[in-house]
Amino acid sequence: MKFLKQMISVALPKGRLGESVYKLFAEIGYDCPEILENSRKLIFENKENCVRYFWAKPSDVAIYVERGAADIGVAGLDILLEQEPDVFELLDLGLGKCRMAVAGKKGALSSTGKTLRVATKFPNIARNYYSEQSREIEIIKLNGSIELAPIVRLSEVIVDIVETGKTLKENDLEVLEEICDVSARLIANKASFRFKTRQIEDICDKMRHYVSANVKG
Ligand code: PRP
Predict the structure, then answer these.
(1) How far is CA 104 from the centre of its chain?
(2) 3-class SS of residue 213
(3) N or C: which end of the chain has fewer CB within 10 A?
(4) Ligand 1 pocket check for 145: Cβ under 6 Å
(5) CATH 2.40.128.110 correct for 8-96+183-214
(6) Which residues in the chain are classed under CATH 3.40.190.10?
(7) Pocket lining: 149 vs ligand 1, CB cutoff 6 Å
(8) What is the spatial distance between Cα 178 and Cα 60, in angstroms, rounded to a whole number?
(9) Which residues, 6+ apart, have CB-to-CB distance to 180 below 8 Å?
């Protein structure tokens, strides 16, 4: 069905996931070849296709979308669960698959009665997870290299993303409990969705078809 296209701003997560996501957009008719040229430019526009892309830090994508600086964007479920942004979650893209888990040294959860120190980049997810258990915890917020914390006894466990499991293995740590599966989600600003409904739904429908035919579930 033909309709008047409006310019759509898309916040993409900078990095490998973002490049796969851009290719998805290109496959469904929203290409902007300039974006893959090696450059430090952050914004790219294809007026013909009525699309403007920008590269944001993955953990910032939801902020751009929530505040309407981008109409739509792609963010990991980890970021959405952590930040709880006021956006519409439209589609699971089946990309960037990993797990959110509690990890630590073998037996780290068995010490009873003691406050469990949990190091993490995801304090909200960790707090929500432990609020369903009676265990007393202390959250230690870190910004990266989370696996270091239990090794140097900063914490007993970590709550973190596990993708291949290589980082844990190489540091003699293991998954102790699984919290949830994580993957990339297409999200939309609520006002944009109201005013650009047909175009955002068109993108979402085409993407759903493309993903179900081409991305492994
Ligand atoms: C993430 C995560 C783990 C690692 C897991 O870190 O926090 O450290 O990847 O991947 P793996 O299971 O494939 O080993 P990231 O690379 O984002 O860097 P960071 O330490 O700065 O958070």
Answers:
(1) 23
(2) helix
(3) N
(4) yes
(5) no
(6) 8-96+183-214, 98-180
(7) no
(8) 25
(9) 77, 81, 99, 100
Decide whether any atom of ligand 1 lies within 6 Å of the 153 Cβ.
Answer: no
pLDDT, one tens digit for every residue, the chain (217 residues): 566 778 999 999 999 899 999 999 999 999 998 898 877 899 999 999 899 999 999 999 999 999 999 999 999 999 999 999 999 999 999 999 999 999 999 999 887 678 999 999 999 999 999 998 878 899 999 999 999 999 999 999 999 999 999 999 999 999 999 999 999 999 999 999 999 999 999 999 999 999 999 876 5
CATH node for 98-180? 3.40.190.10
> Residue 112: what residue type?
T
Residue 45 Cα to ligand 1 middle (Å): 32
Q: Residue with structure tokens 């040229």?
A: 37
Determine the distance separating the centroid of ligand 1 and the alpha carbon of 214, expressed in angstroms.
26
- Would the CB of 20 count as within 6 Å of ligand 1? no
